[in-house]
Sequence to fold (709 residues):
Amino acid sequence: MPSDARPQELTYADVNRDVVRSLVETGSKYYITLACSIGVMLTCFFFPWFYQLYYGIGAAGVNHPSVWGTYLASFIFWIGLSHSGTLLSCVLHITNSEWRKAMYRSAEAMTLFSLCVAAMMVMVHVGRPWFIHWAVPYPNQMEMWPNFRSPLMFDVMAITTYLTGSTIFIYMGSIPDFAAVRDRTTGWRHHMYVVLSLGWRGTDLEWHRLRWAYTFLAVLIIPLAVSVHSIVSWDFALSIVPALHQTIFAPYFVVGAIYSGTAGIVTVMYFLRKYMNFEQYITKVHFDNLGKLLLVLSLIWTYINIVELFTGWYGGTSGEIEALRYRLFGYYAPLYWEMILFCAVAPLLMISKRFRTSFVPMLILSILINIGMYTERFLIVGTSLSRQYLPDAWGLYVPSLVELSIIVGSVAMFITLFLIFVKIFPSVSIYEVKETLPEPEPDTTTGEPEWQPTH
Amino acid sequence: MSFIDDFLASWREYREPGYYDGFDYHWTMSVDLDRCTGCGACITACQAENNIPIVGEDAIARGREMQWIRIEKYWEGEFPDVKLRFIPMLCQHCDAAPCETVCPVSATYHNQDGLNAQVYNRCIGTRSCAVYCPYEVRYFNYNNHHWDAPLEQQLNPDVSVREKGVMEKCSFCIQRIRQAKDVAKDEGRRVQDGDVQPACVQTCPTEALVFGDQNDPDSRVSQTMNDERAYHVLEELNTAPSVVYLRKVETDAV
Fold:
């Protein structure tokens, strides 16, 4: 890794000061943003959802052949967005990447919150969410287990495991930081961090155990993350619907997930850097590296898309051909070509280093990629279901206002959760950033002997 | 480890082909397309028998009609030489049903009569069964329905009225099958051919629909299954449907 990944001219004290400042100093801009996002969340997510609970799923635009709609597309989108955070952080941790250290905390938070929003989308999606707990295996008076053959059941298991794993991972990695913040705050914050830091003292034994457990979890989470989105893809691939019943779906979804997740990280990095004053920590190097990663992912994604079209065409059954024709040239064709433009063509700009290291173009591109990826999920659900085997049962699905509003509201929910997070968790890892800094000179002014750890 | 042995034995039995032949009954319907006139009496009968809601004009325009049995129409040729073909489409009660594997809460399952049963009370409304069904015969309750007076008086007390957020579909009039089995049990005999008919079969004026037990080799439906015109819709998907179609005889074939 290039050595200029490390923030220049920073000292240990600067890191402490900057990160603690991001937690305790809150300007009016923050409160206004938080109030806005909570307001949007309530009016655009919860209000329409309550209406839908009262009226029934008919509040959405779903109809007879297209019984799945944007709720499921949003679910895949949020699960996908969750993918890069923890997965990327784990991979980079194992490969000892220096540039990971300033950004991984917020990336992992992204994982956590997009998983929460995805879980909410499931609640919005099902017809009777008040019975959703039946999909969880627990001993009950009905003596009924869920259906273990169902890919939706696998989904429940995989997502719960991933959510638990990434929660433990982000929390464990934050313990030393909680302790550092605990020692520098007063009042209720101090009490909160006393509890959160679990009595961390920073002894060698504690550090040793933390390192070991952290690496262990990182190794555990990588296959878990890959399996989660494979399983999400099986919701579709295990059906016999033309254009969904494909073996490429698991890698297709995993790559798509990492792709949109990495783009999401770029977006979040930009705003953290801009509004939390982390200019010295999140630098061009991060954008450059993330840009390279995005470029590779976009090429893989394009390749898989071509393979998907090819296998459909090569399969040659009337159902597959019609599904392909409908996707490429049917009612939703403009969306398809928009997706190709945003996710396959536009990312080629990142071949240029100048593009990768300029912040605003990268921000715009990362948002475009995620719009394209949302479209991809929508097309997978929307076009395939409206063209199935029996032409008499073909249909057309158009999202309703309630659905569109809930999409907006779910973004606001994500932003709300993230805004709360940056005031509780140190959003840049204090101790890992310090590792990249030159060690400070021993303090000779006070004449106190240098502290030595006891073993 | 007798528990594991028992489990493995039952698992193997379940995996055996022809598992459903081991059951008492294997209810089957045959549809003779040469007799079917597309009159739609079966749709009406089904609507009355099974408390299927009248969804109204708006819902139909939005593609939310409820018909457990429907007549699919296919036009052939260009105007003036057009030909209309139609085929009644209802739940095929597949022995290898894709809908059964996907339901996370087992709200749809195969029962001991070879029927694909739907448990409304268990359904949580993921709608995945409707996606997995290649015949598109599963219908979802997008909202609560009501019956204007005096229509609520004609609701069938043997069939539940479904709530919003629940999937429903053709049950082969399971309430009638249950009744016939009860009577037969009291009289200490098997259900005879012709003892039970779903509403659509009962009402079909041309007797295009025949219903019976496939495990009984002498039943009318078993006879029709041996007809050389017999085929399954979308047979290549290997869903092993329990509805047999008899091809239309082409009298004007060139």
Summary: The radius of gyration of chain B is 19 Å. Chain B has one domain: 22-246. The helical segments of chain B are 2-15, 41-49, 57-61, 98-102, 128-132, 174-186, 199-203, 220-225.
